[in-house]
């Protein structure tokens, strides 16, 4: 019992230290970077507002959500706080400005996060189609993966093509160098990551797992995650030569051996430092590598931080 208590005391000290590190860095360095003061007039149509003829796919800083379809997961007030990473529906995330979705599914096509489940994937498709029908120039990266420990839904690749075929941008390395206007009217880059089923190939309507990469570390310590994100981002090729999307997740996750295991209070330790992260990318010389930035509980400021840097790139200021 004593060793457990001692361990918890040390963990609380480590957490307090790490929170202070980010707070002090924020105070000393600030959050200024090229485009930081830009605000889109319409977040629902922010790509269209940046001129699709000038906006290259590989220069976009894509605002993404982590565990996107968990707004209604589990049982309210009982299991939901342990798995909910977003409070908005998929449609409302897209309207807010989200452009990368992270969906985990199980064999029956229901969305899940670990052992907890929510609505069927059909709800995700309905929300995406509604958003696409209301906009003209917004491109979405849709990542769908079979959750760890689960089996692939039968023929799910065929299902995705049947449901989204008219919108799908086919797997092609040349897409990265194209502008948004050059890929229209296609609007969705769908990355399918099965556990055991066949993976998509070049020219297929769906994209294979290697086209959306990240370096996830499972920690609830904010400075540890922040530093890891910078380190791994710095190891990537610049966006000008990269033939895949690289994602940085501005999140930390609850740990089972910590008294606080609800998602929101844990992820709030890093949530407010997205702009600091972008400014540190400039300070560390890796701003030309930043591409997909994801978060829990996405908000307006997070979207505007990403769109602002995208605008600066178009204007040749970053």
From TrEMBL:
Gene3D superfamilies: Phosphatidylinositol (PI) phosphodiesterase (3.20.20.190). PROSITE patterns: PIPLC_X_DOMAIN (PS50007). SMART domains: PLCXc. GO terms for biological process: lipid metabolic process. Pfam families: PI-PLC-X (PF00388). One of its GO terms (molecular function) is phosphoric diester hydrolase activity. InterPro entries: PI-PLC_domain, PLC-like_Pdiesterase_TIM-brl, PLipase_C_PInositol-sp_X_dom. This is Uncharacterized protein. It comes from Punica granatum (Pomegranate).
């Amino acid at each position: 019992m004593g060793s457990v208590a001692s361990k918890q005391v040390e963990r609380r000290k480590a957490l307090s230290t790490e929170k202070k590190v980010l707070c002090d860095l924020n105070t000393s360095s600030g959050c200024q970077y090229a485009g930081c003061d830009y605000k889109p007039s319409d977040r629902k149509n922010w790509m269209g507002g940046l001129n699709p003829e000038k906006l290259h796919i590989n220069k976009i800083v894509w605002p993404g959500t982590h565990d996107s379809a968990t707004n209604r997961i589990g049982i309210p007030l009982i299991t939901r706080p342990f798995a909910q990473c977003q409070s908005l529906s998929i449609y409302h995330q897209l309207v807010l400005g989200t452009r990368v979705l992270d969906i985990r599914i199980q064999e029956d096509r229901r969305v899940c996060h670990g052992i907890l489940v929510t609505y069927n994937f059909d709800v995700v498709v309905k929300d995406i189609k509604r958003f696409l029908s209301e906009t003209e120039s917004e491109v979405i990266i849709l990542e769908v993966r079979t959750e760890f420990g689960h089996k692939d839904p039968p023929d799910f690749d065929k299902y995705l093509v049947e449901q989204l075929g008219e919108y799908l941008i086919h797997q092609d390395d040349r897409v990265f160098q194209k502008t948004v206007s050059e890929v229209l009217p296609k609007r969705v880059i769908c990355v399918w990551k099965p556990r055991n089923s066949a993976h998509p190939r070049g020219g297929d309507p769906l994209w294979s797992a290697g086209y959306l990469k990240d370096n996830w570390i499972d920690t609830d310590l904010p400075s540890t995650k922040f530093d890891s994100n910078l380190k791994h981002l710095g190891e990537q090729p610049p966006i000008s030569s990269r033939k895949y999307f690289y994602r940085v997740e501005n999140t930390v996750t609850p740990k089972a051996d910590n008294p606080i295991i609800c998602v929101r209070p844990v992820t709030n330790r890093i949530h407010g430092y997205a702009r600091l992260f972008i400014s540190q990318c400039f300070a560390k010389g890796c701003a030309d590598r930043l591409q997909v930035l994801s978060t829990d509980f996405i908000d307006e400021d997070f979207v505007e931080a990403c769109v602002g840097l995208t605008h600066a790139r178009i204007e040749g200021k970053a």
